[in-house]
Amino acid sequence: MLIDATLITRPPQLGADDAEELAHQLYGMQLRAYELSGERDRNFRMDAADGRQYLLKIFNPAEAPDVVNLQTSALEHIGKSDPDLPVPHIVKALDGSSERRISLKDGRSSIVRMLTFLQGVPLHKTDRTASQRRALGRCLARLDRALVGFAHPASQHDILWNVASAHRLKGMIDGLADVRRRKLVARFMADYETLALPRLSSLRAQVIHNDFNLGNVLAVPGQTDAIAAIIDFGDIVKAPLIGEVATAAAYQLAHSDDPLASAADLVGAYHDVIPLLGEELEILFDLIAARLMITVLITEWRAVRYPENRAYIMRNNGPAWAGLEYFGELSRDEARSRLLQFCSTGEKQ
Question: 346, CA 20 to 30 Å: which among 29, 64, 108, 135?
């Protein structure tokens, strides 16, 4: 098992005063900084006196420059291919660059990037409705359409938050303290390795957002079903397109009387815009389970090593366990049938 260096490297140690100084030095702006939560990087909302807002990100020192540029280039591509999509825009530094490398006080170095800050209510703070989930599915499909044809040398970089790489976390299973849960994850991992993994290389692939969770999509205040923003492109990667759908669907299971019906709302709406093929639908359930496994394994491993950030790291751990335990009570055929209830069967191509 190879661990992403950003998961074991301490984030940059900067405060609001440092962020304000960087904004002035690199961007020529006098801004007020407010620190935001984050797992690998350091993020600040930057407020201008005229009401404009920006996001200043200081990347984890272990983040590869070409991966940072992958994210930047993807945002620029989306801005050209679908200008009306509500994604952040790049703010150029005084020297015209989109990214700047800085030296940290502890001797390390990091890359800095500024984006426009988009307003909205995180979906986990809204009333969840079937209409909202369908809007999410359509929005995600639109985003993926905007990314069609985008290429970058770093697009196939190594990232563990990727359902196509779930098998690489197998060694973490023995570290789960609860025996029953350990057996549950081992069971789904075996299904994944048998039913999904051998098929992934033959499926259509493109660059995807790869983290369409309830914190990375914002709703218009007072309009639960209207999408205001798509944020956080930090996990972007070239991967099977069905993995995008599986990842998004995994976050629709929580806080629902019928979790699979909730996921089906998103899947069906996505399928209406970008029809999913039969071979993709065949393993969608297994990939949703893979995302849940990835979540519980990585978060529990990291929470032990970064107890000071445990609350943020573990924010999706409980819902992921609930999803796995719910899946554990169903047969695969039953689960697939309910998950795909709003999809016509795609023809294999």
Answer: 135
